[in-house]
Amino acid sequence: MAGTFVGRPQEGVLMVETQASGASSSSPLNEKAALAVRGLTISIPTARGPLHLVEKLDFSIAPGKTLCIVGESGSGKSITALALMRLLHNALDITAGTVDLNGTELLGLSNKEMRKVRGAGMSMIFQEPMTSLNPAYTVGNQIVEAITTHRSLSAEAARTEAVRLLREVNIPAPEQRLDAYPHQLSGGMRQRVMIALALANNPSVLIADEPTTALDVTVQAQILELMRNLRSRYGASVIFITHDLGVVREIADDVLVLYAGRVMEYARAQDIFENPQHPYTLGLFAALPNGRSREPLTVIPGLVPMVGQFPKGCRFSTRCALATEKCRMEQPLLEDFGKGHRVACWYAPIESTRP
Amino acid sequence: MVQFILRRIAIAIPTLLIISFLIFLLQVMLPGDPALALAGEDPSPQAIAAIREKFQLDQPIPMRYLTWVANVLQGDFGMSIRTGLPVRDMLIQRLPVTFQLALMAMILAVLIAIPGGIIAALRPNSPLDYTVSSFTLAGVSVPNFFLGIMLILLFSVTLGWLPSGGYVPFASDPLGSIRSLIMPSIVLAFATSAVLMSHTRSAMLGTLNQDYIRTARAKGVSEPLIVIKHALRNALIPIITLGTIQFGELLGGAVLTEQVFGIPGFGKMLVDGVFSRDYSIVQAVVLVQAIIFLIVTVTADILYAVANPKLRHQ
Amino acid sequence: MSDMLFMNVHDLVKHFKVANSSDVVHAVDGVSFSIYRNETLAVVGESGSGKTTLGRLLIRLVEPTSGAIELDGQDISNLSDARMKPLRRRIQMIFQDPYSSLDPRMSVEQTLGEALAIHGLAKHSRKERIAELLTLVGLDPSLAGRFPHQFSGGQRQRIGIARALSVEPEMIVGDEPVSALDVSVRAQVLNLLSDIRARLGLTFVMITHDLGVVRHSADRIIVLYLGKIVEIGAADDVFTQPRHPYTRALIKATPDPFRLRREATEILGGEVPSPIAPPSGCRFHTRCPMARDICSKEEPALETRKPRHLSACHFAHEVVPPISQEPPPRLYQQRLDIIRAAYAGKDT
Questions:
Q1: ipTM here
Q2: Rounded to 5 degrees, what angle do the CA atoms C175, C211, A281 make?
Q3: pLDDT for residue A291
Q4: Across the interface, do B211 and A132 touch by the CB < 8 Å criterion?
């Protein structure tokens, strides 16, 4: 009896401790998080048990900071974004983890409560500006809908607010644009409208899934600049999903490198560019065409493995030039190499263990 | 937009002229001599000639066509060879009946098809979806006359709830009139709604997978609003076209259904006209059907443009 | 790159009529340039620049409105289909989306066999040739019986390349050949292309919006803006010393992992105007940070700034070179060398 009596409070204390240390150490910046994700696992149920598309994902974002999730197709970056919004396709489930938005555990909310979070506490913009707006309604209608879904404003006040938002995203002649249909706008303008929609209720987290990939480079530069400005003005944390390391350099405070549903490296942006450690991160850099040499690019052979064909050990071991038997058999943990720079590799940093 | 409508109508006019000429020609080429049919048994050559002259059957074909068009433009569809009454009067009598029947059938079809299609699309491959699919299959494959007879057996003969046939004019007894057309409109709505429903289902499945639906969800919009405002609004664009054309087909008269229920509508008028080789009637009915159908397709195009902002602003 | 002329394009124009309207899209509006044997020429531009149309004009997939395309001194812009056919073999195209450019119902063997048959390769030698082609593009010949959907994006692009190579062309036009591919796969395909080009002595025209790819693989660059050439020159010259403000803006706008963040003032405003009603004078003047009165009135001629480096700007001499890249950090470079060596040792 006494044992249990003593044990309970001890357990409680322990839990508080681990939670506190977990919350601080999983952000490389060691600041209070606007969004904290713990152990997020996204699975697809099959006859032979669930297959994990994303496994044990941990990260957090401090207010006003930008986290870039970098990965190739099949890395799980887009479904992670959808999972945070709880907008996953029916066939996929979140099988483990927590998503904490300013102290609210999103995965425990009812559908109705979650709807109140979407577009208000957390909003999202997508890759394809051409198809992400409803062709049947004016831009104004769609922005006003975003506003009035979460705030009770008169039609007139909502319209004024919509004009203000369009002005915020630098759309010329916003009063007139309000009555335009999406097809009358260019791709860049539509993406600005999407950003206006996402900002409509001053969210604390904005998720952007490859928002500039479909745009021309000069327009991409404008949109990235706009997002930087708005982030500092609105103080929203941004999750920016991209495959482009150049874009990461432009916008990221923190970087999470995802491969086959697992975190390979998670660090401050500066560390990723100056002190990259994981062979996959390095491989991505080496595969990048740059102006310095005409030498053949370094090629990571093969393809990202399909779900269900993930190797037993490190997910990258099938394509890693440095992989050993240990890599193939045992999954490395995400370990902190100082200042919150976390790497999941048995041999990081590679120069110390390699001849 | 006005320009688009005018252009659409301008395109329809030559089509109408060609159709009218073809209708006229088909009539001329039909086997069987109407003068013989009219003159009764053992007619004298004089009697036949007199009938020919009276109905201008002795004139050259282009002349007959021009006279016919000129008359039609003045609302004169000629006399029925069989009854001697003006065809126009018959049209005026029959058209409202068919219109009422078509309208009732269409309303019924839309009420069944749109919700059915939506429900099926919301839960694809669910038992509900399979029910809808079976309904569609039945609607397309069960012949009208068979369903009509079955309904008569059930509701008139066995239960005695509804009249087995005939028509009560709307003006004299609105309720009775609707009652008299309930079974025929169910028969017509069955096939119509089946097609409409399967199209609604696939259009909804298409729009529900669009990126802008995901955007609406990300905004926190509630599911019913997403289905109605965002998905259905876009799915309706092709459905409107289909529905309008189906309505046009119903307006053209339902030959078998009107026959089964003994409704004095447009379809029955055509059948009677054909059996009695009453050229003026057949010509008039087919021509009016063609005009209705042209109006309907033009309307469908206009509605499509109105519903689709991309076309509206061109 | 040699000095042997392969193709000469003279004042090429392509206008498209807009359906149901009197509007005309000025897709390509009077471009002149040469393509030399064995060179890689990059055609760079954003949407509306006309780069895709230009590529299609070069292989005569679309008919020019006016102008001449000379191949070995013969104008091919007006040749009949029959007389064009033997020439088509000499110029092949690869496309951005390898999936939609392959017939989904045809196996790789059938796709390649068809290309070989059209150009009259005897049937009995086809199978060997197909195996040879697949090996050339780094695919296992035993996969010849498979269909496009059974391959990944990068593998499909390899099939597209094999198809283009099947008729032993002299020139290949690639329309955004690596834009749809992931970073690691893109490197595989880029290496393959440069390897094949060197081994087979091909001339390569690469149409792309990606300056990173251009800088890596192009010998010369053509920069297009709204259907006009604004700059043309050797890749190194154009990158280090652009002579047109648009080229400079493009270089500055391309995200580069090893460059300081650019200043907000350096971001080009506005968007590409409609090619239906291109601006007067210099087409770039509506967005140009250097524009003055003359720019909206007078169209600048494409003038030689130094040997083989031309640009069309009234104030070409005022264009400031873009800041060069930062040298890569020491630790980064050290680790990258280890990785490069490791992968090179694996012989990929």
A1: 0.88
A2: 105
A3: 67
A4: yes
